[in-house]
Amino acid sequence: MRKILSLVLSVIFALSAFAAPAAAPSDGHEYAPIQEKKINYKDWTFKKLATGEPVNLREWAKGKKLVLVVYLAPWCNNWKLEAPVVDRLYAKYKAHGFDVIGVSNYGTPRDQEIHFKDKTPPYTVVVESDTREARDQTTHYAYRQLTGDARKWGSPYNIFLTPSKLKHDGDVLTEKAFITNGELIEDEADEFIRKRLGLKEEKDEKKDKDGAKVASQT
Prior knowledge:
This protein has a domain of 148 residues: Glutaredoxin. About 9% of the residues have low confidence. Helix 3 links the parallel strand 4 and strand 5. 38% of the residues lie in helices and 22% in strands.
């Protein structure tokens, strides 16, 4: 009887393992798609990291074609994973009217020093809050609630804005914006940026360059 029971249990275990294979281990990323959301995004003035110089978003964005506001916690691992992606996108498209501004939250001056001392971003970074206790009082937290971000700290959190479409006065800059409740998916973000900057798809751009090269050689 015991042998039969043992055999049955072995068969059940084998079948369950076959039907539901173990999930692959997480790579630690928190990717999210770019989605348009109602947000009632307001103008702000925060102090620039290190210098304390006031930076007003509406004024800073003037003359640019597309801007990315990325909310980050300097100690956050997911922000550290996204940071190189933002650097690459900024470097690739800054000459075409794209700019980035980082908004640091929940990191003490010591946290900021540790994160930024070896690699200061090439774009502007300002500070909204510098203690973890301030989380529920930040605009960052309020926007996350509006856009369905259920993460505890919400870093990174990305908002794309088109300056030409922002309101010229009043508290609210725009009622809707394209946001990412998590890390940017690089290929998606690249395509999104190119489209809004009015650039050709990279494959078409390559064809034009190759065609021009052939023409110049004939």
